[in-house]
Design a protein that fits this description.
Distance between the termini: 47 Å
Oligomer: single chain
Number of domains: 3
Number of helices: 19
Mean pLDDT: 88
Helix content: 40-55%
Low-confidence stretches: none
CATH class of the largest domain: Mainly Alpha
Order of helices and strands: HEHHHHHEHEEEHEEEEHEHHHHHHHHHH
Radius of gyration: 34 Å
Structural class: alpha+beta
Strand content: 5-15%
CATH superfamily of the largest domain: MetI-like
Length: 526
Amino acid sequence: MTDTVRTSAPSAAAAKHLKRRRARDGRFRYYGLTAIFVALGALAVLVLTIGSQAFSAATYHVVKYDVTLDPAVIAPEGANRPADISRNVEGFYGLVRDNLLTTFPEAEADRLSRRELSDFVTRLAVLPTARMVANNPELVGNAITLTAPLNDDLDLYLKGNGVRERKIKTGTVSSVQGEEDGTFRLSGTEAFEAVVAGLAVAGVDRAEDAGQPDVLLTAGVSTGRLTEIGAGSARMELLTGRAQDFAQARPTARIIVSAESERTISDRQIAWVLALKEMGRVDRVPRWTLLTNSDSTYPELAGGLAAIVGSLLTMLITALVAMPIGILAAVYLEEFAPRNRLTEFIEVNINNLAAVPSIVFGLLGAALYINFLGMPRSAPLVGGLVLALMTFPVVIIASRAALKAVPPSVRSGALAVGASQMQTVFHHVVPLAAPGILTGAILGMARALGETAPLLLIGMVAFVGDVPRSPTDESTVMPVLIFSWSNNAERAWEPLTSAMIIILLAFLLVMNGLVVFLRRKYERRW
């Protein structure tokens, strides 16, 4: 007969203690889930904030100009070689300006109007067309459609970001009568009642001394500015087009809250760009120039190609220097170095170097590579060497951890069959530790790709308009370009900065994705 084991019921104190312990476990689980959700929420806010701004930079507006390539302007006598044509930016810009003046003859009235109309396109915006004609000189003398980016302020306006305005559909305008002072009287039964109500609402958002908001009235390609507004009539100053276009029409009123003196674009420029859009000459297209153009002082022409190529060249130098030296140093320290005070001193300092701020490596690089060795400033060669100094500790620590993870039985087995220590390490241990070594090296490279401070100290903050062709050419990198664009005053740089951040994050995601792939494909569990 077997004896049954009797278990006594837990005492009241033990039950109470058990209940508290389970409550603590539940709270700990709750705190962990809360921390995860907070982190995911912060990440979502970051992605949405940057993504919403970058979405605006994904497209931009371009204007089409039908021009005839007059040989006397494009390729005059003595300057008709392809190289001369590609440099003749002023000639192509003159054709665009003449086309705009033909479209809007009222701009000939004064110098200010001509300058405002000329601001629609920058001179350098016609450079791609000049190069295209230089490569195809048979186009000289023919009519072509020239496409150029719209001014960045007007581009923001068409996207709804540049000017605070409220659009209101008016009633039918029954009559348009000219006045002696050159203005026009628009009349219609309660045609402007909604505009009067909109002005009352808009006045609440303005300062007391700001005055009356500007009201633009648009009908087709014609736009005027209302100077007197009543429920059934209004006085209009014609900005562009014909006054008769408003007769028997229901124009659109635009109440602009900010005064014209406080804006970067004038009422007349708004009227002209609305007319071009109504004519079908303004298109919104993808901004591929962000990946194909180099940096520029004009937001509508700026791109990140030079910074992307500079980052790739810098990472190439960093990889060629940091990975072999760091991996070999890790192999020596882990497999061959004697265990003495010197080795311990080196290991402690390597661990300390991993925590040193990156700007310290920038100071070291500026003193060693530029001041002492005389290497070129703002070059990927110097930038790669500086980042290699910063990446060394990360590569060494990660590589040593991967080597330690290889079971001692692998070493013992190799030595037992007659392999030397060198053969054991490089034929057996290192191949098995390779996934972990590469993972650590790529993570170190990803960290170096996002560094800005050490590169600022070696001069990589300079404006670079040309794509670098070698590691010794003047260059910049993506983090420095983001830093530079974020300091610009114009509002158009904000979405461009966010778009460049997205591109940098894409590079980092690719590198981290490569780490995950290597780890899952080649990692062995012991």
